[in-house]
Amino acid sequence: MRYDVIVLGAGQNGLAAAARLAGAGRRVVVLERRDEIGGLCAAREFHPGHRAPGVLHDEGLVDPAVAGRLGLERHGLAWRAAPPVLLAEEGGPGILLAVEPEAAAAELGRRSPADAAALGELRAWLARLAPAVRRLLAEPPPKLAPAGWGDLWRLARPALALRRLGRADLTELLRVAPMCVADFLNERFATALLVEGLAAPALSGTWAGPWSAGTTTFWLLAECAAGRFVEGGPPALAAALARAAQAAGAEIRTGAGVARIRVEGGRVAGVVLASGEALDAPVVVATCDPKRTLLELVAPGVLPLGVEEEARRIRSRGTAATIHLALDGPLELAGRPGERLEAIRIGGGHVDDLERAFDAIKYRAASSSPHLEVRVPTVADPALAPAGHEVVSILASFAPYELAGGWTEAARARFLDSALARLERHAPGVRSRIVAAELLVPPDLEAAFGATGGQLHQVEPALDQLFALRPCPGAARYATALAGLFLGGAGSHPGGGVRPTPGLLAADAVLAGSTRP
Amino acid sequence: MPIPSPFHERTRALCTSYRWKDWAGYAAVCSYDTSHDREYFAFRESAGLLDVSPLYKYEIHGPDAAALLSRMVVRDVGKLEIGRVAYVCWCDDRGKVVDDGTIARLGEDSFRMTAADPTYHWLLAVGRGLRATVEDSSARLAALALQGPRSRAILGEATGADLDGLKYFRITRARLDGLEVWVSRTGYTGDLGYEVWVERDGALAVWDALVAAGRRHGLEPAGLDALDVARIEAGFLLLGVDYYSAPKVVLESRKSTPDELGLGWMVDLERGPFVGRAAIAAERARPPAWSFVGLEVSWQALEALYESYGLPPALPATARRDGLPVYAGETQVGKATSHTWSPILKKYLVLATVEASRAARGTVLELEHTVEFERRRVAATVVATPFFDPERKRRP
Predict the structure, then answer these.
(1) Fewer C-beta neighbours within 10 Å, C or N terminus of chain B?
(2) Total structural domains in chain B?
């Protein structure tokens, strides 16, 4: 069978690439190793009748412009306001951090009027910053070695956008971007719980603690991109993408794992499936893990030695575990009796507790007091569980890919117990209501989703693995050194989290570089 | 501080000139006497014995050993038969030469490679994911080059082996003074010659056995000065002198493709991927910019030049590596990188890189030559290399 483009992976990025390419008239097939589409965004029935909406929590990152370009709203995508996040505290009501400024200020003002004012100022600064940052996250990264005026212009444009910030804002951006997020937030806030709670999302999936240099950059990127949530969560996004792709004529094949990318005459000729079936296409867009793509799907020796070296150096260590709980009653916090909360952040109450949770993985240990990013999807969508039941999805940080002694049954039980013990302190009695619990440590995530190291963002978010360095300098602009092979997964700019932009930008690169055969 | 080679105890006792240099971190003899003449003539008339232990040596083993080397170098090593040695070069991703050396196939899955520069990390980088192990045997193995017309007789007496069957660029196992050694018919002098490879513990015994067998054949220990003259006569490239290793230089103009170094004959594009293949293939779409050539300086012109100063012709006593401009008319068209007086040919020989359009045999160019602190030029003609190519080199 001959196609114009073969897309590897039917996750959000693969489907976005397919929708764009098929929409441009290309004959496209999407090959998915798993038996269902969606990848990390796929709903997961971890217990009969109980479904978790994927394993990614950062779902406010979907760029409305991307959804618009792919016509996702025509294919069922609907938006909703981002829910407030509770920064839970033991023996207290915690801080309910709303998106709306007035609500947030009122809540925080009860504890610290100064912090409430500081949060207002910080959010105002972010609002001024956001257009330039969003622009960076919507375009391909600039070429590191510009060739010609066009490249120079593309390189200069984001810089000009930042320049428009004005001297004070720009200076502040340059000052804080390399800082650690703990210093950055401690400068502004006195409330320890708030600092820890604000810092935590910047570290999701990274190999970094709040005292690691440069973490403010991750924080800024996440905060500036944060927007509305998708109704129905990541699975609804994947479904809309799949419908858009299929409506445009793309074929989606599940249960079709790819064994290798075929190369003839120095360029892509197609793929061979694990079943032995061969498919022909002059272009392959790989949205699966870039490290595996470059080092395993492409035979050694095909790519330049330098690119292989870069690919080997890509750091893809998983740092978090996913816990799915089925409860036979609602999750209720002692500090918030009777309230239905969708997003809860549970740490130790101080940013240093977050750092201690990170410390463990440096020494190949799992945190004994993991930080818990809790989602209760049944609050918004009760249909995910039988009547009266609750689904709880927790991202527990930090848990290493390589645990000293290995992820034995005992080690898993120990980690799950430490996470649940922490949850129990905030929600007394919750453990007795657990009907089923699933723990996915990084090796499980690797096995299930094919992401090297069980890294949720394919490539660790790190200063040297962002923008024009993501996933590696030699393949950062979607095209690779192998003619016809493009990368377009979360491991490419601006990937990571629920954000199908890389797939779309990879498709743009394919279309820019090739005329219709 | 250079360290002693496995033969140091012997070479030190013989080196009455105290002239040593650093070769790959080892103390190596430049010449045993104050002049290298006797050592040079041993290479050409009897036999010279040269310590080549400082060569970088690697053992590559495993089912994918041939695949690894084929991926690294421009030749298809898979085609190399057991017991044969191949002269090879290897390139970076952009098709620029990194180094040159030899690969000997010792067995189906077993190879020995020599290199001028440290190459371990390069072998590892190329070999990742392949079922092959790489050992740096540079320190473990001692090596002697026995080069010259009497080398076969000497080695035959020392080993009792029938060397008539060992053709040019072949390698075999042999016993020497009770020791297991490898003997290859290879060398850097362009003459009949052999190289003997032995575990370093056996180094002195091998030296002594060869010296004893060589006594009645006029064997002389020889140093690097004599070798340098011989290798220019043989037209052999020297890394760091005639060309530069691509990863070690910044300027693109200092990098060379195999074609530009005259090594294009060994490039095999019709096979699986190897490092630099795409770039070399693209490069071949247009003619190479540079050519590596031999030049022979006109003795009449040189004599006339000196005559104009009232002087007899004078040339350096040793091979020289100071680069000299090469001209065609008023335009510089290249650079001479190695030059020497050839005592056996009685000619002034030059290895040079010139614009490809000036590389045809018989083209008359000009070489800068300084007389009495004045930069002058002498005519030099492009000639075929090797300048010196005795029939005995390849004779069965």
Answers:
(1) N
(2) 3
Dihedral sign for Cα atoms in the order B384, B385, B390, B394:
negative
Tokens of B11: 């070479």
Shared domain check, B72 and B150: no
**Residue B369: domain span:** 289-390
Helix segments in B73-167, DSSP class H: 120-127, 151-159
- CB burial of residue A447 (10 Å; 0-12, 13-18, 19+): exposed
Does the domain at A5-78+231-315+455-513 match CATH 3.50.50.60? Answer given as yes
- The whole-number average pLDDT for the span A42-57 is 95
Please spell the DSSP secondary structure of A55-67, one letter per residue.
S---TT---HHHH
| ipTM, two decimals | 0.71
- Cα–Cα distance for residue pair B300/A407, rounded to 1 Å: 83
B273 touches chain A (CB under 8 A): yes
B71 and B189 in a common domain: no
Residues B99 and B149 grouped into a single domain: no
Residues in chain A whose beta carbon is closer than 8 A to a beta carbon of chain B?
266, 295, 299-302, 304-309, 312
For β-strands B219-221 and B47-51, DSSP reports them as parallel
Average pLDDT over residues A46-60: 92
Q: What pairs with residue B334 in β-bridges?
A: B326, B354
In terms of domains, do B61 and B159 share one? no
- Phi/psi at A151 (5° precision): -65, -40
- pTM for this structure? 0.84
Eight-state DSSP code of residue B9: H
| Residue numbers in B near A300 (CB within 8 A) | 71, 128-130
Strands A79-80 and B364-371: unpaired
Residue B254 lies in a domain: no
